[in-house]
Write a structure and sequence with these properties.
This protein is mainly β and 115 residues long. The chain contains no helices and ten strands.
Length: 115
């Protein structure tokens, strides 16, 4: 059974940094595009970033996070990361990872950016 587990969220001040992790079991992440999404209170879930299958090595970022967030993968650990720098209050939300093209989602990790 495939499971995705997000971690690394927390409370951070504006301008701070966090690194989120998406760890997988039951499947190898390098066969899939992996996406990070977030959902702010009262808002729709939105795409934040995506990394292609390992052999393509392409990345995508939403305009709102471009230049501040970096997605990467560690195949040895079967984990995808989202490094988030220069965080803003509008980055607050629950962050989820997803194996693109599947219904496999983690349960999310909460990021709160507030002074």
């Amino acid at each position: 059974q495939v499971q995705l587990v997000e971690s690394g969220g927390g409370l951070v001040q504006p301008g701070g940094s966090l690194r989120l992790s998406c760890a997988a079991s039951g499947s190898s992440l390098d066969y899939y595009q992996i996406g990070w999404f977030r959902q702010a209170p009262g808002k729709e879930r939105e795409g934040v970033s995506c990394i292609s299958r390992n052999d393509d090595d392409e990345t995508y970022y939403a305009d709102s996070v471009k230049g501040r967030f970096t997605i990467s993968r560690d195949n040895a650990k079967n984990t995808v990361y989202l490094q988030m720098n220069s965080l803003k209050p509008e980055d607050t939300g629950v962050y989820y990872c997803n194996m693109r093209g599947t219904d496999y989602w983690g349960k999310g990790t909460l990021v709160t950016v507030s002074s």
